[in-house]
Amino acid sequence: EVQLVESVGGLVQAGGSLRLSCAASGFTFDDYAIGWFRQAPGKEREGVSCISSSDGSTYYADSVKGRFTISSDNAKNTVYLQMNSLKPEDTAVYYCAALFGCSGYGSITAYDYWGQGTQVTVSS
Fold first, then answer.
1. In angstroms, rounded to a whole number, what is the distance separating the alpha carbons of residues 18 and 82?
2. Strands of 18-25's sheet, edge to edge?
3. What is the pLDDT of residues 53-77, one digit of tens each?
4. Rounded mean pLDDT of 26-33?
5. Nearest to 60 by CA among 75, 49, 47
6. Is 24 in contact with 114 (CB distance < 8 Å)?
């Protein structure tokens, strides 16, 4: 059974930091890229970041570049999203998901498997 399990998010003040993790199982981790999406209330899902498990290449949306860092521990089949300098507009449900290669990470249709999502709330 394919599973992507995100860590619990949380509530943080603006300017603060939070790290999310995504533990994958049930598929060959090295064959996939892992991306993070987020969905704020009333908005469409937004591709935030992606990492290729095979070569470690990383990609970021302009809205988070310089503040978020994605990393991967292939031995643990786990991807992390370190979020610094958080802003109220970062408030959303964050999802991790698996896809073949990061080139299409901004498109919701590119993903094969999804986690259940975790709430991140940034207060002003």
1. 6
2. 3-6, 18-25, 78-83, 68-73
3. 888 899 999 999 999 999 999 999 9
4. 90
5. 49
6. no
